[in-house]
Amino acid sequence: MVREQYVSTTQGSSPPRSVPNNVYNIGIYGWRKRCLYLFVLLLIIILVVNFALTIWVFRVMWFNTDGMGLLQVNSEGVKLEEGESEFLFPVYAQEIHSREDTSLLVHSSESVSLNARNEDGNVTGRISVGPREAQGRARNVLINSQTESMLFTADGDQAVIGPDRLRVTGPEGALFQHSVETPLLRSELLKDLRLECPTRSLSLDAPKGVHLKALAGNIEAASNMDILLQSSIGMLVLDAEMVRMPRLPLSEEGVSGNAQGLLEVCVCPSGKLFLSKAGVTSTCSENQEC
Question: Which of 165, 252, 266, 278 could be cross-linked to 284 through a Cys-Cys bond (beta carbons 3.0 to 4.6 Å apart)?
């Protein structure tokens, strides 16, 4: 409370005249003053708590001049010296390298996807590894060895295998829905080689010949119906120490006096073979079973 008194005097004998007293209240009083002090106190408490939390975050996250804890940030990028890193959202990076003498492992509870995008942001290549399957999408697929030799390449038209040998180790072998072109088809050592078509025909075609060779075993061809050996221009050669035809039909008629049981092989004009009991001369014309 400030009290001001104004007194005016004049020259003469008149006594001074008093001025009415006026009282002015300057400041904040009452409940407003208490609320202001309470707000200032609350603001100071919030500032102290924020400062303490900031110091705690710096201590927990190990912030330093080089980065954050074991995570170093420099001009070359971000480097993690030890431990594991966890990303909650997509990561965009130009290159990802593992530490020296260690492998790069990528784990996910659902799936891991790698996308390559062009300048417009469209996905040009994609690799996704999920809990049930792995998928890849690209125009061309190329796999090289350490010596930059092509191991496998594929596009929309064909797939090419670079090594000299393709080995299939499955118990059921390899299943092809269409034709296969190869210069050599060979089984493993001490194992059989089978070419099988359960419901349709099987054909082997080559412009200069087809060679079937078994160095230490047999070659068997079994059919429910006919087996045809046909040559358009050349001839059919059976080159072996012994040629056996155990199920040739035997002519019912024979030559009397043939006690040795000798037989001769006869050929019909149609190419059919049959057996006839041998005599002094040929008996094929007499005992025709054509």
Answer: 266
